[in-house]
Amino acid sequence: MHAPDGFIDAPTSIAMGALAAGGVGLALRKAGADLDEKRVPLAGLVSAFIFAVQMLNFPVAGGTSGHLMGGVLAAVLLGPWVGSLCVTVVVVVQALLFADGGLTALGFNVVNMALVTALGGYLVFVGLRKVLPKTKGGVVVASGVAAGISVVLTSLAFSLEYAIGGTGGASVATVTTSMVSVHVLIGIGEGIITALTVGAVLASRPDLVWGARDLPAATLAPDDLVGAAS
């Protein structure tokens, strides 16, 4: 998913940089109201966790591999604004220190990997919560499904941006078909990892899960959610 330098033309790169700056600026303003003494250290832990697991690739198909993006995971644990900032930090550090994604494509990568996954994925999560049971299990299922869908949304955004300013020789139809088909499989892995992680935190510290704030206090008692998510 990390786009390299030269993957999109200069006008599109500039436009994506402006869009990323606007989105991150909005997230910075909104995140202030969501942070308290508990969530500041949790944001650091979530960022470190996402950074670490993004370094681990799992096989998908045809020799390709995928890794966790973490947008929905961060958003469910911390709220969408703080979550999008956590993934943004990870993407920027990867680009600056590990050459993982080009610097001219940094805005492109921040939009796709941080804003689309965290903000777009969280909207899916909220929609699923409205129809699923108001239980911890419902939160876990919504987290996993939203995480999987967020990966597909990201691949669609990637393909749309390629259609606007992509410099590769492949046709838009070829890129879209390849991106979506591979990321459907990656989304399954993302959904499983997200559901297991959210389930584990809910089972031990449900008070730390932003996406479960609406559950009744009696529902948040520790239980065997890790086993249920497994």
UniProtKB/TrEMBL annotation:
Spans traversing the lipid bilayer: 7-28, 40-60, 72-97, 103-125, 137-160, 180-203
GO terms (BP aspect): transition metal ion transport
Protein's recorded name: Energy-coupling factor ABC transporter permease
Keyword Transmembrane among UniProt keywords: yes
Localization: Cell membrane
Keywords for the protein's UniProt record, in alphabetical order: Cell membrane, Membrane, Transmembrane, Transmembrane helix, Transport
Superkingdom of source: Bacteria
Main location: membrane
Source organism phylogeny: Bacteria, Bacillati, Actinomycetota, Acidimicrobiia, Acidimicrobiales
Membrane topology: Multi-pass membrane protein
GO CC annotations, alphabetized: plasma membrane
Entry keyword annotation includes Transport: yes
